[in-house]
Automatic annotation (TrEMBL):
Residues 210-405 form the Tyr recombinase domain. It comes from Phocaeicola dorei CL02T12C06. This is Tyr recombinase domain-containing protein. Keywords: DNA recombination, DNA-binding. Belongs to the 'phage' integrase family. One of its GO terms (molecular function) is DNA binding.
Length: 413
């Protein structure tokens, strides 16, 4: 086994003319390749070449020599760990390990990745990965998961655990496995490991087509014509729901929609989920909603300003609070609206699971059934991949098949 050799040296050729000090480094040698890890700088007169340490004459000799010994021991442990995991490990891999501090333990790497998501304000993704790793920790049963222990058998066992012990459905299981695959892939790339050893490399993730609840035009009209007083708690929920039905804008973007995002002809927002710019032309129904909202504010002695919400539901300004607080506020408001939509479904005798996302599905399906081209619908929904939009096409096709079956039953009596 070819283990990297590590020694402490002073690099006199790097002597600074301004300070007259040279870097003390750990020199790592493997397969005739060399790299240096700088620890600190001292005057060359204090370096003991024979013993590879700082001379006692230096005022901080004890502290500096302790630093050398500790760092050397850490690197020896890390490089040995790397070599045991993969005997053909390269100097490039060792360099990446030392410079990036990437862990060979999945949980250690995942913790750093999750922390970075939080720092970057990507709180939805942060929550997803936190949940994914929590499940995996419970399955593993201890605090570490070496990358080499993640085999195809391990993945199949974990897949079985998710579906048959926790009760996750096929799509939720796939979300968990894809997140795990991303973390494992990161480690393989960061270590320059042979990716043929990555068990996820040739895996094809399965997904099941789920029933996307959507409303027919007649059902949308029933909700639209439901008589509600303005002070009824269901009134705003109905307004938001129909606004989504007629624009396709996600609930998170509707709740944070401000008057500054609206002109006479269009709504322009940067979507919270993807940060992609979305522009929606204003149709007659949306214009009527906006007019009602303006009148309601002005009739109550208020004034429309660019920074005010169109739907005054959120209790915080998402531009003034942390990303986590904004996410919590949006999630709470959406949960309340979804509860109110269940009551609206009862009052309109609509036997479907009404939710804010049902409105977005209804919008997409309405466009498809009216033969609007898929690429256009993709842009209107703000999808980054047309494959996502094609899911709605499959829903419409399945409904067409139901019509055929119905007519066949009529014909055959």
């Amino acid at each position: 086994m070819n283990v990297a050799r590590i020694v402490a040296v002073i690099r006199r050729e790097k002597l600074s003319k301004s300070t007259n000090e040279a870097p003390v480094c750990l020199r790592i040698t493997k397969d005739r390749r060399v790299m240096y890890k700088t620890l600190f700088h001292v005057s060359p007169e204090f370096w003991d070449d024979k013993n590879r340490c700082i001379k006692k004459q230096h005022p901080n000799a004890e502290i500096l020599n302790t630093t050398i010994n500790q760092k050397k021991a850490e690197l020896e442990k890390e490089t040995l760990f790397l070599t045991l995991a993969d005997s053909s490990i390269s100097m490039a891999t060792i360099r990446n390990k030392i410079n990036n501090r990437t862990s060979f333990d999945l949980f250690e790497y995942a913790n750093k990745y999750i922390e970075q998501l939080y720092k970057d304000g990507k709180h939805a993704t942060y929550k997803k990965y936190k949940s994914v790793v929590k499940k995996l920790r419970f399955y593993v049963g201890n605090g570490s998961l070496p990358i080499k222990s993640i085999s195809l058998d391990f993945i199949k066992g974990y897949e079985n655990y998710l579906m048959n012990h926790i009760g996750n459905n096929r799509n939720t299981t796939t979300v968990n496995l894809k997140a795990l695959a991303k973390l494992v892939g990161d480690i393989y790339r960061n270590y320059d490991m042979d990716e043929t050893g990555n068990p996820f490399r040739k895996m094809r993730f399965k997904r099941e087509q789920t029933d996307r609840t959507f409303l027919e035009i007649e059902e949308i009209h029933k909700i639209q014509h439901l008589r509600l007083r303005v002070r009824n708690p269901l009134y705003d929920a109905r307004e938001v729901f129909l606004f989504e039905c007629y624009t396709g804008i996600r609930i998170s973007d509707i709740l944070t929609l401000k008057w500054k995002h609206i002109t006479d002809e269009k709504i322009s927002i940067r979507m919270r989920k993807t940060e992609k710019l979305l522009t929606i032309p204003i149709n007659d129904y949306v214009r009527s909603v906006l007019d009602r909202r303006r009148c309601a504010v002005e009739n109550n002695g208020g004034k429309i300003t660019s920074e005010k919400y169109v739907f005054n539901i959120l209790k915080v300004d998402v531009d003034e609070v942390s990303a986590q607080d904004a996410l919590n506020a949006i999630s709470s408001a959406t949960a309340v609206i979804n509860k109110q939509l269940k009551k609206i479904a009862e009052q309109t005798n609509i036997d479907k699971n009404l939710s804010t996302h049902c409105a977005r599905h209804s919008y997409a399906t309405a466009l498809l059934t009216n033969n609007i081209p898929l690429p256009v619908i993709k842009e209107m929904l703000g999808h980054s991949d047309i494959k996502v939009t094609q899911i709605y096409a499959k829903v419409v096709d399945s409904k067409r098949n139901e019509v055929v079956e119905c007519l066949n039953k009529v014909y055959h009596g």
